[in-house]
């Protein structure tokens, strides 16, 4: 069964500093369950067949002017019907005046009424983005997450393979730590995964033989980051003699996390290999690929031309 998440309406109100015009008795218990919001133009015109009451309803200038164009009797009917549909919350934008009919009905029906000075489109965009983050599907993976040259690298591998040591070395080289040992991953959009650390272990790294160290206190605030987009997964594994590892980079691997395909690089680990430098190169190479240049493909084209072959038919 798919797990769903909720966020308290009061937390959203605090985050955006909404003015609370009607505060129901159960205000602190009201939960938001969807990142989608709605402008109730059709509802205020009397069409409720597809009305979704679990969405926050945004009333802007267009809705307000429409209501003002109605007769007093018709406006009262539409507003009361709107509140009687029991939306999870009604939010007026642009500091628009709220009709007394709606306020009185909302108090009677225990429906929250909020207001913000922000225009409708900007607050809708910000609200959806925030709700997407709070309500995103999520998993926790054993590993580490570091930011290297602006790229989010998710480090996976068996316990003891060197994930934490590599993360610390990268921090010493000027990069930033997001999480060690456990990474909470959220799918915040149709193409983006964001990772963070569980609150209990945030900014901490465990180094065998030394113990737990606080990266923020040792290296300063510039060495840590709260969240980061996951751009590349690095699978660290112990070197296996005789195993064929990719030496050209022609084979592009991916790993599926929460339904998204993320580029995957497998890095064999053995004494003498400087993993921090290898990961820096991996980060820069991944960014270069996203910008449209693939070194392996360019090298292959040159090789084919050198052999007198057409690279387009390879």
Judged by helices, strands and strand pairing, the structural class is alpha/beta
State the distance separating the first and last CA atoms: 46 Å
How large a portion of the residues is in β-strands, by DSSP E? 25-35%
C-alpha Rg (nearest Å): 27 Å
Instruction: Give the mean pLDDT.
Output: 90
Shape: elongated
H/E element string? EHEEEHEHHEHEHEEEHEEEEEHEEEEHH
Number of helices: 10
Topology overview:
Layout: E1 7-8, H1 9-16, E2 19-22, E3 31-32, E4 37-38, H2 41-44, E5 56-59, H3 61-68, H4 72-84, E6 89-92, H5 100-109, E7 113-115, H6 120-135, E8 138-142, E9 144-148, E10 151-157, H7 163-172, E11 176-179, E12 182-187, E13 193-196, E14 204-207, E15 211-214, H8 215-219, E16 227-229, E17 232-238, E18 253-257, E19 260-269, H9 275-290, H10 295-306
Parallel strand pairs: 4-5, 5-6, 6-7, 10-17, 17-19
Antiparallel strand pairs: 1-3, 2-7, 8-12, 9-10, 9-11, 12-13, 13-16, 14-15, 18-19
Helix pairs in contact: 4-5, 7-9
Q: Please, could you describe this protein's structure?
A:
Strands 11-9-10-17-19-18 form a six-stranded mixed sheet. A five-stranded mixed sheet has the order 2-7-6-5-4. It has a four-stranded antiparallel sheet with strand order 8-12-13-16, with no helix packed on it. 32% of the residues lie in helices and 27% in strands. It has 314 residues and is an alpha/beta fold. Strand 4 (37-38), helix 2 and strand 5 (56-59) form a beta-alpha-beta unit. The protein starts with 6 loop residues before the first strand and ends in an 8-residue tail after the last helix. Helix 4 (72-84) runs parallel beside helix 5.
